[in-house]
Amino acid sequence: MFLSFFYLLRSKGIDVSVTEWLTLMEALDKGLCHGSFTEFYYLCRMTLVNRESDFDNFDLAFGEYFKGLQDENEIPPEIMKWLDKGDMDTSQLNKDIYSFDQHRDFNTVKRMFRERVTEQNSEHNGGNYWIGTSGGSAFGHSGRNPGGIRVGGTPGMHTAFSVMGERKYQSFRNDRALSMRQFQVAFRRLRQYSARLDVAKTELDVDKTIDSTCNQGGYLKLEFDKPRKNTVKLLLLFDCGGTMYPFMELCNNLFQSVHKANHFKDVQTYYFHNCIYQKVYKTPECELGDWVDLDYLFRHYDKDYKVIIVGDAQMAPEELLDVNGNYRGPNGGMCGYEWCQLLNSKYKKVVWLNPRYHGNLTSLSWMESEHRLSQLFHMYMLSVDGLKEAITYLMAPR
After folding, report:
1. pLDDT at 307
2. I need a surface site. Which of 24, 155, 270, 387 has the fewest CB within 10 A?
3. Residue 307 is inside which H or E element, if any?
4. pLDDT digits (tens, 9 = 90+) for 260-319
5. Which residues pair with 163 in a beta bridge?
6. For residues 79 and 119, what is the distance between their CA atoms, to the nearest angstrom?
7. Which residue did the predictor score with more confidence, 70 or 395?
């Protein structure tokens, strides 16, 4: 039964097992989706997808395979075309045109929405009944009526019961650039590397508590462990300016997450522009003179510090390889690559997080610097999976 859907899911990176697939077949045989295409979607997702990070890939695969079937939540293409207005200015809307009773429950709102879909045969903007834009209707987008169903557009009052026509789970993907929340979750992995204090067991061990409670047939049994002591010392080096401007918010999220985390014994942050040379800057403005020698770092932060370099490695080859490549300050008689080699030799563990890492793609000349640095440092994509891999490497015994 539609076995090609099984292989499509596997090709999208969703690790569906044969057992899970047979479970879905059994559920369908028992009629658990009740003849509803929407319930069929949720049944498939519940049975076949184990991680939130796979939800977006599942939606893409589901839409690709079943694109010819009609869903009760599907919006006719002509209505979507009428609503394709881009971002709109809603500041001058007349509140007197609001006609929607926001106290209606969701089932009523949904029924009214389906009625509009079947009845509507023309474009409407600024009204208070049809699916449209910029009005008092509860259906469409860019209006100011609380409740209802937004279709397309961008969020306004954030009060819609439901949102149609958008990918809801993109932010859960593991291959996406990180948000602050995702940074914080990833850094929690560092907690397992903290040392246990030689004191009484006063910290609740959730995993052991769950196991013991289950083993006792559901009777709660609390388990405790010795508290941990933060032992991880971190040195952060950020590339600022130039080609890193598009990633300023991303880098700020990383900076804020690191400094809010309680998993580090010490965190030190410095900055550079394009490439690491004789000096690193104290502030992200990278102002000339507001710097310290790289040797200062070597003397004040010992080899046990874990080093994370954040940059896109998009400097011109001469900036990396020419002894005079640093046009903003002193070179100290060495090229940028040699300074990077020195940094790499001084610390036990160094990783490079790259917001647009190209991996093994080396066919273009402007990727030469990235390729050379990826051969020197352990370089990872600045994504959820990339950060987890980097942390795993940093905390490995050797």
Report:
1. 95
2. 155
3. strand 306-310
4. 766 678 889 999 998 999 999 998 888 888 999 999 999 999 998 999 999 999 888 888
5. 150
6. 11
7. 395
- Distance linking the first and last C-alpha atoms of the chain: 50
Strands 139-141 and 132-133, by their bridges, are parallel
Q: What whole-number distance in Å separates Cα of residue 107 and Cα of residue 97? A: 24
Average pLDDT score over residue span 359-370: 71
Rounded distance, CA 269 to CA 278, Å?
Answer: 16
What is the distance between the alpha carbons of residues 204 and 216, in angstroms, rounded to a whole number? 18
Residue 22: C-alpha distances to residues 40, 54, 186, 297, 364 (Å) = 15, 20, 34, 58, 47
Q: CA-to-CA distance for 272 and 328, rounded, in angstroms?
A: 10
- Give, as one character, the DSSP assignment of residue 260: H
172 in Cβ contact with 55 (< 8 Å):
yes
At 143, list the tokens. 């209006």
Alpha carbons within 13 angstroms on the beta-carbon side of residue 221 total 11
What does 155-199 look like in DSSP terms, one character per residue? -SSS--SEEESS-TTGGG-TTSBPPHHHHHHHHGGGGGGSEEPSS
Task: Give the tokens for residue 155.
Answer: 């969020």
Residue 244 to residues 189, 293, 314, 339: CA-CA distances in angstroms? 27, 23, 9, 21
